[in-house]
Structure formats: structure tokens, C-alpha cells
């Protein structure tokens, strides 16, 4: 059932597939790393370690702990018991988006 102007009953399921988001995600991680490198007391290995820890902590909290949607969804409350990870691509496994979100922490 399509309700509202965005065409999705739960936009939480498809926003990671939007155009240019993967590049923006990578640039965000790079920006975090450059900010940490600008702190004079941090060495390069410590900056990489902090980049990894901050990214993975945010990744864990936003994808695996928080449940529901950040707005009022039109899905009659079906998503309120699901984490964001469970909502991505309508719960389908091994999609490109899930693979990308799995590989980024490994690469870091």
C-alpha cells in the first residue's frame, strides 16, 4: 500500500539505495578520520583506531539497537519491533546494500 508523497509505506527500507549514498558514506568516514588526524596529540595509528571505534559504535547503535522508524511510518506499526538492519531491503538477505554495510567495517 503506497501512502503519502514518498511512495513508500516505510522509507526506512530503501534510503540506503539512493543515488550517491555509498560515496557520501565513504566521504563521511574519511572526514571523521581527517578530523581525528587534525588533533595534534593523536598519532596516525591512534586516529585510525578511533575512526574504526567511532564508526563501528555508531553503526551498531543505529543499525542494530534502535528500533522502529525516525518518523511516523504509514505501515500500521509493523516496523516498530524491527531494527533498522531488519528493515533494510524489506528484510531480504545478501542484497548489495547489506553487503556494503558488512564490508565497510571489515575494510576499516
TrEMBL record:
The chain crosses the membrane at residues 20-42. Keywords: Membrane, Transmembrane, Transmembrane helix. It is found in: Membrane. It is a multi-pass membrane protein. GO terms for biological process: regulation of ceramide biosynthetic process. One of its GO terms (cellular component) is endoplasmic reticulum membrane. It holds the Pfam family ORMDL. Belongs to the ORM family. This is ORM1-like protein 3.
